[in-house]
Design a protein that fits this description.
heterodimer; A: alpha+beta; 2 domains; five-stranded antiparallel sheet; four-stranded antiparallel sheet; 9 strands; globular; B: mainly alpha; Rna Polymerase Sigma Factor, Chain: A; Arc Repressor Mutant, subunit A
């Protein structure tokens, strides 16, 4: 395999780290890194050469709302008073609900019961990857636009407890069509928790906690009591 | 240098505490590192609001996966910068974001070893090595690494052939690597 050539690995890693690879080459290289550990190490090497240059930029203090948003998304803080950010969030939620309503109309309704909550799992803005409906102890998941993944990998859905404890697996997400996940009734605060999706080896995390990159986080939208 | 080591160790301690669920350690890491990360993201994306969105994503990832860090990645700060830069570059190369990426191109004359950098105090070796590069090598590396420009964007900006741009970056990076090793 020519990717074992040290000179080629070095060239590819250099261009990946400095950021001059084309989007397609960048996506391919990320996949290659998963399979070839020496490519990953070459990248780490160049990151250690170049990143200190970025570290020397004069700091820019984030708005206090950034920390507030982080703690809200982790479920540690309640929503703020209405600010532009809050209005933006509300608009995003409204957009998500419209998307859900649309997707709902084009797929069969699995349960006669009314869903209690919905979540739109999106990697990129306005492009849902999956839509999740919670009805009782069941999560009905449908795929909309599957993110890139290796054939020998799976997407795993995690509940992020509001008390900051370790993520709890809710199961593997479907790569096509719809899937039902049954959640434990021992998870009463599921709707108050955040959600996350990680990329894991085939059949899910071997450790019970996320081992691969977290590609997205999301919040539930409650639709009934 | 020992100040730098202390800072690295402090970051590592916070990360270890975060893996045990310490929110206080997470907040300390945020307060200590977010200014630097936001500076990098703002430079790359050209807009503070977009940079702050990426900043949120980065810290949420770090909170959920502190154990992903290991010493082969360099210092904790190097690791954080890598997560942030990868997210920014991915966004920049995404066509929708690219349309928003309209920050003012720096004029060639503005680019110097001191462009936006104040390396004299904390990283003299890197400063020295950057100064040893020729002007074209230094400029193109900074435009690509700090501003996130593609080869084509640098070609248009410096009105130089694509082959020359690629060569300046490639040779400049190798020279930088050799100098930092020496």
């Amino acid at each position: 395999m020519r990717y074992h050539n040290e000179e080629l690995s070095n060239e590819l890693a250099k261009h990946y780290v400095i950021g001059t690879m084309s989007p397609l080459a960048r996506r391919r290289f990320k996949k290659l890194m998963v399979r070839h550990g020496h490519l990953q190490q070459a990248v780490w090497h160049w990151e250690q050469i170049l990143n200190p240059m970025a570290e020397e930029l004069a700091p820019v203090v984030p708005d206090s709302q950034v920390w507030q948003s982080i703690t809200e998304r982790l479920g540690w803080a309640k929503s703020r008073v209405r600010t532009w950010w809050a209005v933006s969030g509300w608009l995003a939620t409204a957009t998500s609900l419209l998307l859900v309503a649309y997707l709902w109309t084009i797929q069969p309704v699995v349960s006669p019961q009314q869903p209690q909550a919905l979540a739109v799992l999106q990697v990129e803005q306005n492009q849902p990857a999956w839509v999740v409906q919670k009805t009782g102890d069941r999560l009905s998941v449908s795929v909309n636009a599957l993110p890139d993944i290796q054939a020998n990998q799976d997407f795993e859905l995690w509940m992020l407890p509001a008390n900051g404890q370790a993520p709890i697996s809710l199961g593997l997400l479907p790569k096509t069509g719809n899937k039902e996940l049954v959640v434990s009734t021992q998870l009463p605060d599921l709707i108050q928790s955040g959600l996350a999706v990680s990329i894991e080896p085939e059949n899910g995390s071997p450790t019970g906690t996320p081992t691969g990159p977290v590609i997205l986080t999301a919040q539930w939208i409650e639709v009934s009591g | 240098m020992s100040e730098q080591r202390n800072s690295d160790q402090q970051h590592l301690d916070w990360l270890n505490d975060m893996s045990m669920g310490s929110r206080q350690a997470f907040q300390s890491l945020y307060e200590n590192s977010s200014g630097k990360l936001l500076a990098i993201a703002t430079k790359l994306l050209g807009r503070k609001d977009l940079a702050e969105e990426v900043l949120q994503e980065v810290y949420i990832k770090v909170w959920h996966n502190p154990e992903v860090y290991h010493s082969e990645r360099g210092s904790v700060m190097t690791w954080l910068i890598s997560i942030l830069r990868n997210q920014c570059i991915d966004q920049l190369r995404h066509s929708k974001v690219k349309q928003k990426h309209k920050h003012k191109m720096p004029e060639p004359a503005d680019i110097s070893p001191q462009l936006d950098l104040d390396m004299s105090a904390s990283n003299q070796k890197l400063d020295e090595c950057m100064r040893q590069l020729n002007g074209e090598q230094r400029n193109t590396i900074q435009l690509a690494f700090l501003y996130g420009y593609t080869h084509q964007e640098i070609t248009r900006h410096l009105t130089a052939p694509l082959g020359s741009i690629k060569s300046w970056i490639r040779r400049g990076l190798e020279a930088l690597k050799r100098c930092l090793k020496s």
